[in-house]
Design a protein that fits this description.
Layout: H1 3-7, H2 14-39, H3 41-75, H4 79-106
Length: 107
């Protein structure tokens, strides 16, 4: 059996065979590049670190934007509005302090 019979391309032109070989080489090169990228732990760690840095930066940007909104809201409120807004918060805080104080006395 000849090599042409093994490949199933009996009668294929040499140019066609060369094109097929070049295509297979390109596919193998791409496969090797992909596998080497998957096995390169340093590159993966750097990529993940960059992703985490981006997420942290986004979180800090969001926190800063929220802080600016709170400050802007606070500047537009009167003392009475502050008291109404902060009253429940202070009541809960006072309740927590009283419960803890009683628990310490019993202990």
């Amino acid at each position: 059996m000849s090599t042409a019979e093994n490949s199933g391309d009996s009668g294929a032109a040499p140019e066609q065979i060369e094109k097929e070989i070049a295509r297979h080489r390109a596919e193998l090169g791409a496969t090797i590049d992909e596998l080497s990228g998957r096995l390169d732990v340093t590159r993966q760690a750097k990529r993940q670190a960059a992703q985490v840095r981006g997420m942290v930066a986004d979180g800090l940007d969001l926190a800063a934007a929220n802080a600016r909104l709170v400050v802007a809201w606070a500047r537009t409120r009167t003392a009475k509005q502050w008291a109404v807004a902060m009253g429940p918060v202070l009541a809960v805080a006072a309740g927590i302090i009283l419960v803890r104080a009683r628990a310490r006395r019993k202990a």
